[in-house]
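hiii so um. not sure if this is the right channel but i have a protein structure encoded as tokens and i wanna go backwards to a sequence. like what aa goes where. can anyone help
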């Protein structure tokens, strides 16, 4: 069922280097949204959307593979990265999808490729169902279409606890871990790079994570599967070889609703595919885009 990516083991690849980028801001409704602009000006637009508690730098190790043909940008959703926090908290999927819509309209993106990982994949599905007129194609990366009540309760409890602080940035980097537990298989230099971009310095000189913890205190349970009834653009679902978030049954249900959807499995990867096996991810997406 899944189209193989034929990717080599990441350990066989040369040293991974993050793509160069420009840090930019745009006004998205009431909030100022931050994004990474990797270039290339005049290329076909590609917009990347990260997962929960993450940020645009999740795409640093795949962006340069697309910039010869695409103008690649990675958005920080509200409450994440260097984008504004919502006060009072407004962090449901429709809010995040409105960030994408405001960003797309502000930059006048048309016939663009939308790439969403994890929570960002659900945001992308919601956006694609709500605002299909500018979208050209969509890539959903290891996103669980619905979460259990128990998982939601754990996230909400996490959101009510105070944020962790660290005496120095290096302490934050050394203690940084990818979630969920057991998915931290990316190369050490990749995880360090992500960690260095995950913290902010407080007024007292200590460091904490950039994401707004309160975004989890009201975390909503959503079943995104019905959204696929409204999605007609070419679509690819990418899953990690070691991940269980997109099983065959889930994919078949999606495909009953949207027959054009394809599935690719990336070897040597778990949930964080763009970090675990960037080359495998790029190969899978390039193969899909070449057919669109």
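sure thing!! here u go:
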């Amino acid at each position: 069922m899944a189209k193989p990516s034929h990717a080599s083991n990441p350990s066989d690849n040369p040293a991974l280097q993050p793509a160069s980028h420009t840090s930019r801001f745009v006004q998205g409704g009431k909030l100022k949204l931050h994004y990474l602009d990797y270039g290339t000006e005049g290329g076909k637009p590609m917009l990347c959307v990260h997962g929960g508690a993450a940020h645009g730098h999740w795409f640093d190790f795949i962006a340069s593979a697309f910039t010869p043909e695409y103008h690649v940008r990675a958005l920080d959703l509200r409450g994440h990265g260097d984008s504004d926090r919502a006060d009072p908290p407004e962090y449901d999927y429709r809010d995040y999808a409105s960030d994408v819509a405001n960003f797309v309209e502000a930059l006048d993106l048309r016939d663009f490729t939308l790439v969403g990982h994890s929570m960002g994949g659900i945001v992308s599905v919601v956006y694609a169902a709500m605002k299909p007129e500018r979208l050209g194609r969509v890539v959903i990366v290891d996103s669980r279409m619905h979460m259990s009540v128990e998982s939601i309760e754990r996230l909400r409890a996490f959101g009510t606890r105070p944020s962790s602080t660290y005496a120095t940035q290096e302490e934050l980097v050394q203690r940084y871990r990818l979630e969920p537990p057991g998915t931290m298989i990316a190369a050490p230099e990749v995880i360090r790079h992500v960690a260095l971009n995950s913290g902010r310095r407080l007024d007292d000189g200590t460091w904490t994570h950039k994401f707004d913890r309160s975004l989890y205190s009201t975390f909503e349970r959503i079943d995104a599967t019905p959204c696929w009834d409204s999605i007609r653009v070419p679509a690819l679902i990418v899953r990690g070889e070691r991940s269980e978030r997109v099983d065959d049954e889930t994919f078949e249900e999606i495909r009953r609703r949207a027959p054009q959807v394809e599935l690719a499995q990336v070897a040597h990867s778990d949930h964080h595919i763009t970090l675990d096996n960037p080359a495998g991810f790029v190969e899978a997406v390039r193969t899909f885009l070449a057919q669109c």
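oh and The chain has eight helices and twelve strands.
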